[in-house]
Amino acid sequence: MVITKRGLVLGATAVAVTAVVVTGAGVHMSGGQAFLQESPKELIDEVWQLIDRNYVDATFNQVDWRAVRQDYLGRSYGTREEAYDAVRDMLEQLEDPYTRFMDPEEFRNMQIDTSGELTGVGIQLAQDEETDELIVVSPIEDTPAFEAGILAQDVIVQIDGQSTEGMDVNQAVNLIRGPAGSEVTLTIRRGEEQLEFPLQRAQIELHPVRYSYQEGSTGGVGYIRLTQFSANAAEEMQAAIQDLESQNVTGYILDLRSNPGGLLYSSIDIARMWLDGGVIVSTVDRQGISDQESANGQALTDKPLVVLVDGGSASASEILSGALQDNDRAVLVGTQTFGKGLVQSVRGLGDGSGIAVTVAKYLTPSGRDINHAGIAPDVEIELTEEQQEQLLDDRTQIGTTADPQYARALQVLNDRITAERQNQRAETVPQPQ
Asked: What's the CATH architecture for 117-205?
C-alpha cells in the first residue's frame, strides 16, 4: 500500500496525534507475521529499497547507503523484534526524526482518519532535532490537553512518571494514548517551570473549521478559525466562505494559530479558495522541483484578508500562509511560525508495519525554504504568558477584541478595507479632459 499525493503528511501533524483510528488502508497482520518469521531480511531490504529510491537527501546524510545494506543483510535475526530494532537502527543513520519505522501497532496508530473520532488527549508532538526533546506542536481545541492548559512549545519530560529522555515520538504516543475515560499524567517543562497535567483520555471529534460574522468599524468581518488540515477541512472552509459571502462581509480574518498542519493537498485546495492566480507551493525532491501547484482562477472571494499565525502554525499552515504572503493576498499578523518544511510519504510494508519517509521539501512561491526558519509575520505581536492563560481560561475570548492578536489583526484589516475603498473612489472620480 502506498499513500498517494493526497495522503502525503506534512510535519508533525497526524504523525503524533495521540489517537488510534484504523482507516480503510488496512493492515494485513496474520500473513505479514508469517512473512516476517520466514524472512526477516526481506523486511530490512524492503525498507532499504524505499529509502534508496525516495529519500529526499541523495547523499543519505553522507552515509554509504549501499554499505549499510550489506551490513544489515549480513546479520542474523532470530525474531521480528530483532529485525524491527535493526530497521530503526539503520534509519537512525539518516539523523532525520521524521523518517521512521513503525511496527504494526504503531502503524495502526499512524493510520488516522483525520475526519473521524480520535481517542487520546489531543496533542500533536514533534521531536526537537537538536535536543531530541518531545515538543508539543499544539493542543487540539476542545480536547483534554487544550482544556487543561497545555501550550504549543511545551516540553514533555515525563509520562505517568516515566522520563521521556531517549524516547522517540512513537514510544511517547503509545504511552499517552489509551481507552477513553482512562487517565494519563504528563509532566511539562515550560520555561523554568515544571508542571503536572493529569488528563482523562477522551473520544475527540474533529471539526477543523469554525467561523462567525462579526461587526467591525468598516462593516461585517468574517472570522474563520482553521485548526487542522484534515480530510474535510477544504469542504468546511468552502462552506464557511460561501456563508460569510452571502452575509456581505467586507473582509476576513483567517486564524491559523496553533494549527499544526496536516494533508498537503488540503492546504492547496484551501489556498485556491483565496487566490485567483499565482503559485501556491513548489515541492522539491532530490532531483529538483518535482511539482508546482498554482491557483486555478476559482477563488471564492477577493476581499481583504488578514491571517493570524504563531509558533504553533506548522507545515500545511506555513504553506497556506506563505502562499498568501508571497502573492500579496494577505497580511500576516502574530509571531514566527514553527518552521517545518518537509513532506513525508507513509507506506505500508509486507508484514503490517509501516514507514514514513521524508521524500521532499517545499518552497513558498518566492522560493523560500522555511524549514527551521519559519515564516515571519508582516505585523508582529506576541502574547504574554498571562494573556495566553487568560485566553485559555476563557476560550470565548479567542477571536474577539479581548484577544490582543485578533484585535491587532482587526485593526490591520480595517486599515486595508479603508485604503481599498479610497482607491476605488479615486478610480471613479472623473478625470479632466
From this structure: Roll (2.30)
* Half-sphere CA count of 417, side-chain side, radius 13 A: 21
- Name the 3-class secondary structure at 376: coil
Each residue of 143-162: pLDDT tens digit? 899 999 999 889 999 999 99
Is 403 considered catalytic here? Answer: no
Q: Please give the Cα distance from 239 to 251 (Å, whole number).
A: 16
DSSP one-letter string for 269-306: HHHHHH-SSSEEEEEEETTEEEEEEE--S--S--S-EE
Is 315 labeled as catalytic in the residue annotation?
yes
What tens digit of pLDDT does each residue of 27-59 get? 233 334 444 445 789 999 999 999 999 999 999
Radius of gyration over alpha carbons of the chain, in Å? 23
Residue ranges covered by each domain of the chain: 117-205, 209-422
Catalytic: which of 154, 255, 269, 326?
326
Please determine whether the domains at 117-205 and 209-422 fall in the same fold group of CATH.
no
Q: Is 302 a catalytic residue?
A: no
Instruction: Residue 81: count other Cβ atoms within 10 Å of its Cβ.
Output: 11
* pLDDT given for residue 225 in this prediction: 97
Buried residues in 312-322 as b, exposed as e (16+ CB within 10 A): bbbbbbbbbbb
- Residue 107: which H helix or E strand, with range? helix 104-110
Q: Do 409 and 333 touch, CB atoms closer than 8 A?
A: yes
- Nearest CA to 50 out of 362, 263, 348, 290 is that of 348
Q: Domain 209-422, what fold?
A: 2-enoyl-CoA Hydratase; Chain A, domain 1 (3.90.226)
Other beta carbons within 10 Å of 401: 12
Residues in Cβ contact with 233 at an 8 Å cutoff, skipping those fewer than 6 apart: 208, 209, 226, 262, 263, 266, 270
C-beta of residue 152 within 8 angstroms of C-beta of residue 122: no
Task: Name the active-site residue from 315, 317, 321, 345.
Answer: 315
* This prediction's pTM: 0.73
Selected catalytic residue, list 269, 317, 321, 340:
340
pLDDT for 64-113, tens place per residue? 999 999 999 999 998 889 999 999 999 999 999 889 999 887 787 666 54
